[in-house]
Amino acid sequence: MTIYPAIDLRKGRCVRLVRGEVRDETVYSKEPGSMAKLWQLKGAKYLHVVDLDGALTGTPKNLKFVYQIAKAVKIPIQFGGGVRNLDLIKELLDNGIRRVILGTNALSLDFVKSAIKKYGTSRIVGGVDSRDGKITVHGWKDTTDKPTIEFARELEQMGIKNIIFTDVKRDGMLTGPNFKSIKAVACAVNIPVIASGGISSLKDIQHLKNLEKYGVNGCVIGKAIYTGLLDLKAAVAEAA
What we know:
This protein has a single domain (about 1-240), classed as Aldolase class I (TIM Barrel, Alpha-Beta Barrel), CATH 3.20.20.70. Helices cover about 35% and strands about 30% of the residues. It is built from ten helices and twelve strands. The chain has helices spanning about 30-40, 50-55, 65-70, 85-95, 110-120, 150-160, 180-190, 200-210, 225, 230-240, and strands at about 1-10, 15-20, 20-30, 45-50, 75-80, 100, 125-130, 135, 140-145, 165, 195, 215-220. α1 runs parallel beside α3 (about 65-70) and α8 runs parallel beside α10. The longest helix is centred in the middle third of the chain and has 11 residues, at about 110-120. The relative contact order is 0.15.
């Protein structure tokens, strides 16, 4: 199982939100590159970087800092937040990003199909952001009528080979993941699922490892490692 430390960018700073609410922002670093180096030093094998401004507005605002992170570390990076066109995907891949996450725009399955055709299945990840069983978009501000399971299956049918499932109501809450929903999504598709939202302890990671047989092969950890509630080095060791 792979641990993905989260680096959420807003106005050039490394921040954490609660359930995606901007008013509940905590700034943890004004030097995202240094934070990325720290997570690499603590054993991270992959980074999860999100442009929160991009997710909210539809256009990335922190690419300068994203590319700084890419240059600062030797480990691969998956990036999302406001990626709405093929040219931007090319720019990201050309500047050191290993995988690009398609969230809101993934609802346009034709766009997903075009992205996969042009850049390959290994470079495109589907973002499945869910609130109460329905897909959320635009930085989690809006909840659609699209059922989460249905959307995950559609992404698989389009050729997506990896999805990140986030339970929005658990994100930043440190209350533990929604294991029931994670298992349901993993069982609904035949591709790997990265779990996100609420992970706060080694017990959570142990529980997620029990879901590996269903297809859960990674998890994104944010607030817990920033607050010190969970030590990243210990989390990586537990996952391994």
